[in-house]
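Thread title: Can someone regenerate the structure for this chain?

I was given the following input by a collaborator and told the matching structure tokens would be attached. They weren't. Posting the sequence so someone can regenerate them.
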Amino acid sequence: MRLDHYLAGISEDLSRTLVRKVIQIGGVHVAGRRVRRSSTPVKKGEQIELYLDALPLEPFVMSEACELYRDPYLLALNKPAGIETQPTPARYQGTLYAALLTYLKNPQRPQLKPELGMAQRLDRETSGVMVFSIHKQAHRGLTEAVSSRQLEKRYLALVQGSPPAEGEFRSLLARNRATNRVRSVRHGGKEAMTRYRRQRQFDGAALVEIELLTGRSHQIRAHFSEAGFPLLGDQRYDGPRTMAGIEIPRQMLHSASLRLNHPVGGKPLLLQAPLPDDFTTVL
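Best answer:
Regenerated them for you:
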């Protein structure tokens, strides 16, 4: 039996059209491997897993409008919110990584896989500047710059409450597997340092500029939540869904700038991403 026929027959909620789209973006795994063809035959006893992530089934397509900087070695872009950076069990197509591979493909030599190095990541709902290496001569240098904290990363965030004018958070962070939340621990975590300065204070919320001194997963979100100033819209870390009657569409976190020395040649670079419309609307 074909894979799409089998899946469409196990539940009234799974139409054949829906199943085919999920298969196409990479959300179905057979015997532990991602399958991308609806016509794949399935056998009795095979384990079939179907993943849905509640995101649009139409995959994200990279365009020139997202580019912030490009040379033969590096590509910097303004990542939209709502896009996974790298493949997940629920999708391959539509992730930023997959979209970039398609975008960078040479139409004259389509069989060749483009050079693409990913040295940093942003959460799905975080927008802003990211930089990738697109030449093998830049891969190692960019990776080392990230791992040795040579990138100066600044973010803008809208947080609940009235934080002090400036401050710094230092802790050891570890992930709670049961809740999938990151939290500060006394022992066994990874060192995390977050420095901030309040830019504007509103009624019940503040705009803060954040310097990320380390790059731990969910670092900003966890630190501000634990301090009593969760990000607006960040429900996982107790952020409010609405503020002054305005619905918050996502966690209000934006990667505003990256400063680094070019991994090939050492030229200083300052990469900046403007605030997206959903952020300025809440502002």
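The chain has a mean pLDDT of 93.
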